[in-house]
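To the wet lab folks,

You asked to see what we're planning to order before we commit. Fair enough. Below is the target structure as tokens, and below that is the sequence we designed to fit it. If anything looks off to you, flag it before the synthesis order goes out.
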């Protein structure tokens, strides 16, 4: 066993993101076994106890997470090739009118707001944007086991063992995919439940078994469902709501 950077340990323990950890360390808001650590790059043993000062805890409590029903034609992250980013839809006018959160739109909620995962420009549905590094890591870390559910309209003829291959047996970019749960909803629509999110994964999986995706909608991430949130509108994640 060897010492590991404290910022990495904090991210692995779900305390915050590595970037946030560095900011907290610089401010003297991190303790290891009760001793304040303020030097960037400091290391600790994996079994040492890391805690956050109240200032850091208050900062985390004030951070928001937003659930958006992204329409087709918007990119998840930064604007590209003339397309608008999904975050541009987060305005006072587009907040879901029956949002049950006590929060109402504040421009401060846009600062540091970033998508926790991707949803392709030609896909629609549930997109999470957050200021909270803990939630971002929970959703997009390599070891995340949070399910993501999609309704996928397809065209073409699938081979005899095509459905079995979609469930387990396909590879992308030289790596075997994790087992999935894929079932037919009707004659031209599949339901995918995945625990990973490689670039254009579902479309590329379908191509390998003779199908072309003509519509893709994400309807659930972990315990959070899209529900009746209208396209182009958003709501706050409530304190009681959890992805896991």
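Sequence we intend to order:
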């Amino acid at each position: 066993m060897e010492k590991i950077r404290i910022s990495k340990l904090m991210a692995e323990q779900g305390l915050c993101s590595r970037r946030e950890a560095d900011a907290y360390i610089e401010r003297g808001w991190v303790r290891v076994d009760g001793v304040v650590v303020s030097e960037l790059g400091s290391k600790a043993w994996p079994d040492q106890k890391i805690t956050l000062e109240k200032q850091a805890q208050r900062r985390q409590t004030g951070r928001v997470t937003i659930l958006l029903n992204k329409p087709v034609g918007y990119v998840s992250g930064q604007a590209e090739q003339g397309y608008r980013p999904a975050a541009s839809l987060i305005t006072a006018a587009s907040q879901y009118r029956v949002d049950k959160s006590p929060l109402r739109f504040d421009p401060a909620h846009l600062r540091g707001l970033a998508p926790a995962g991707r949803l392709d420009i030609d896909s629609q549905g549930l997109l999470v944007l957050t200021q909270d590094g803990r939630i971002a890591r929970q959703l997009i870390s390599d070891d995340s086991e949070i399910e993501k559910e999609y309704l996928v309209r397809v065209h073409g003829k699938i081979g005899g063992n095509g459905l079995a291959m979609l469930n387990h047996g396909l590879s992308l970019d030289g790596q075997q995919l994790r087992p999935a749960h894929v079932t037919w909803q009707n004659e031209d629509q599949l339901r995918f439940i995945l625990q990973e999110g490689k670039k254009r994964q579902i479309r590329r999986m379908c191509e390998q078994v003779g199908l072309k995706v003509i519509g893709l909608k994400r309807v659930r991430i972990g315990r959070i469902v899209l529900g009746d949130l209208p396209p182009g509108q958003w709501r706050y994640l409530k304190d009681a709501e959890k992805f896991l």
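Structural context that might help your review: The chain has three domains: 4-61, 65-138+226-236, 148-221. Residues 159 and 209 are 6 Å apart (CA to CA).

Thanks,
Computational group
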